[in-house]
Amino acid sequence: MTAMAAVIGSYSAMADEGMWMIHAIDAALEKKMQERGLELSAGDIYNADAPGAGIADAVVSMEFGCTGSIISDQGLLITNHHCAYSDIHSLSTPEHNYLEEGFWAFRSDEEVNIKDKRVYFLKRVIDVTDEVEELKKELSAQGTPKGLRKLSYLLENKYKEKTGLEAWLSSMWNGSKYYMALYEVYRDVRLVAAPPVSSAAFGGDIDNWEWPQHKCDFAMYRVYTAPDGSPASYSPENIPLKPLRKLEISLDGYQAGDYTMIIGYPGRTNRYSCSYEVDFTESLKHPISNRIRGGQMAIIKAWMDKDPEIRLKYSDYFFSLSNVQELYSGEVECCERFNVVQKKAAIEEELQEWIMASPERTEKWGKLLQNLKETYEAVSEPERNAVYYRETLIRGTRLGLIMRRAHNARNPHGAGTRMEKEYAEIDLRVERELMIYSLKEYINNINPKYFTDWQKEIIAQFPDAEALAAYLWDNSVFTSEEGIARLMAKEIPHEDIVNDPLCRFAMEVKITAFNDAKTVAENGLSLLDLESEFTRALYQMRLDKGIVQYPDANSTMRITYGTVGGYTLRDGLIGDWKTTPAGILEKYNPVDYDFFLSDRQYLLYSANQWGKWGFGPDGSQMYVDFLTDNDITGGNSGSPVLNSKGELIGLAFDGNKESLSSDVWCQDGYNKCVCVDIRFILWTLDRYAGMDRIIDELGL
Q1: What is the secondary structure of 443-463 as a DSSP string?
Q2: Which of 361, 348, 353, 488 is nearest to 424 (CA)?
Q3: In angstroms, what is the C-alpha Rg of the chain?
Q4: Cys bridge to 659: 517, 602, 638, 671, which one at CB 3.0-4.6 A?
Q5: Cβ distance 212 to 569 under 8 Å?
Q6: Hey, what domains does the chain have and what are their CATH numbers?
Q7: pLDDT over 70 (residue 607)
Q8: DSSP code of 556?
Q9: pLDDT band at residue 78, thresholds of 50, 70 and 90?
Q10: Mean pLDDT taken over the chain
Q11: 96 is annotated as an active-site residue
Q12: Catalytic residue status for 476
């Protein structure tokens, strides 16, 4: 077998790889899932012609950022705590810090409506490829743009008017196929339960993406409807949703090798990317972002550890920042460890052979790979500078957002009615340190040709970047009590806001400067177009060769199947497939915020009394988290983990560090899904929180 054949054979043999479109479970996929242990038919999972007949009817999108599922006939919805983190944070005050105390609605009237929260129930998916192609022809004949935005606008409005449902058009394989998803949207969603972070996020940032983990990562909402059962905005008169389908909960547990499947809304993968794109991202873009975000995290964490009020203000921001930074860092490490660039290059050799075997394909794609290689090399300089610009002046501080809004306001006194609220959510001591750090990184790393004339003049007046950054901060109306008061009172002319030294330095350079330089470097070849052509060519080759394939994730409902099991982290280091409460006690540290337990938590875990939620001969055993090899990514958070009968056994909440190249490459044997056991969730609701009404509602 040639090296090329070995790589392709390995790729095809990854039995559990794949985020399969929920409506496209064909006979072959159904058979493969049943061979793995599935006891259901494809129609039991998804059946658009029989509302409520498929378990997918109980799975919802949480605004296409996370996934949830309905688990009672009164609209009770379960998802991850980290999916509810922003909502819990927004409700918290220094007097009632629900992140640290937990949120428990012991009565129905204590359930809190989350403003603008929405959940989406998928009703049907329709293949509209032929319709899109016809519409493209019509638009071309009219001389009208026919991009995805235009197509979406026309077709989504058509289907929305026709069905009364929310309609979303999705392009698969960069325009090789098109599907319309129809959703019923509910707008009255109320928070019901959320454990404290010492339970839901035990181990904090340190354990994120790691194994073993010991997180009880769950939260509960309830979906409400109008009295007639229809979707409605919040009203005290609304009633709990009576769902078409709910998930049944299994207390029977699982063992290594047991079948599992996950239904959810994975956000984005880029597995059809070429080797040049992966190398460009992992060797140039991510390392810059990782280093700068790491510095920002260190600044914020130091302040959070000093002051509980700063921790409350910045916890949500820090959580988001650290999650992305660790993801990118892990992606760089895994791509190198698993030789992803080389494996993709091997696939490209096969692709080039297939292209050159046909005159038509040669004419269309013969120079595609060479053009990709040369164009990525050409744009590296402007893109490197653009990354530094985005990570510093654009998103380096929260104060920067306030300045940007004031700078761009159409109203001459448009510092904005939100300014008072925005300043209340930040701490200027933290922002000063972040701003100085960002300005130093910008000045020391950006090619001076991108500086404006005014920036060059003021930089020349100071001996180093730190001195300049301190000057800009100390002379800004955005950083003094008097200046802030005048901004809030709308007393400062817009011209003075624009010319404020700190604001001017941060706003004067525009992203268009870097984009224009990139366009010049592309020399008539658009990287976006080249990447799209590569995806279409790879899709066509696999179609031509009869290779079963799935499209990249794009927030549409998908199903993935696998089994419970551990893995070898590295040579000689074996990861078991489950964790227990004993591991929580081993990690417990009363002086470390990430590993802190309240006295009540410590006593309950130590007692080892799990009641009806435990298992084993005397009921003294409990699992906290477990591993499967289901193929997931961001957006799957909160997805139900189901057994062979379609019963709920846990929630997906994380991946392992060794899986962090999965955005671009699924590495067989290493891609793991970290799940929280539903029995540990129920024990937390019952014994820790005393949520008897929820246990009764679940019929348990």
Answers
A1: HHHS-GGGS-HHHHHHHHTSS
A2: 488
A3: 27
A4: 671
A5: no
A6: 22-118+187-269+552-652+674-700 (2.40.10.120), 398-509 (no CATH)
A7: yes
A8: S
A9: very high
A10: 94
A11: no
A12: no
Better pLDDT: 205 or 214: 214
Residue 212: cis peptide before it, omega within 30 degrees of 0: yes
Tokens encoding 306? 């000093």
CB neighbourhood size of 143 (10 A): 7
Q: Measured between alpha carbons, how far is 486 from 155 in angstroms, rounded to an integer?
A: 48
Digit-coded pLDDT (tens) for 100-125: 999 999 999 999 999 999 999 999 99
Q: Can you list the alpha helix ranges (DSSP code H) found in 500-598?
A: 501-508, 511-522, 527-544, 581-587
What is the pLDDT, as a whole number, of residue 9? Answer: 32
pLDDT in tens, 322-360: 888 989 999 999 999 999 999 999 999 999 999 999 999
pTM of this structure: 0.91
Instruction: Please say if 214 is a catalytic residue.
Output: no
pLDDT band for position 417 (50/70/90)?
A: low
Q: Give the span between the Cα atoms of 476 and 424, in whole angstroms.
A: 18
Please, which pLDDT band fits residue 619 given cuts at 50, 70 and 90? confident
User: So what's the pLDDT on residue 410?
Assistant: 60
Contacts of 261 (CB under 8 A, 6+ apart): 33, 38, 559, 560, 561, 562, 630, 641, 642, 646
- Active-site hit among 23, 82, 214, 286: 82
Name the E strands within 26-159: 59-62, 66-70, 76-79, 103-104, 112-113, 119-127
d(CA 130, CA 543): 18
Give the DSSP letter string of 368-404: HHHHHHHHHHHHHHHHHHHHHHIIIIITS-SHHHHHH
300 Cβ neighbours under 8 A, 6+ residues apart: 314, 317, 318, 321, 430, 434
Q: Which of 171, 198, 329, 637 is catalytic?
A: 637
Residue-by-residue DSSP string for 272-290: T--HHHHHHIIIIIHHHHH
- The count of C-alpha atoms lying within 13 angstroms of the C-alpha of 273, restricted to the half-sphere facing its C-beta, is 25
Q: How many CA atoms lie within 13 A of 210 on its CB side?
A: 12
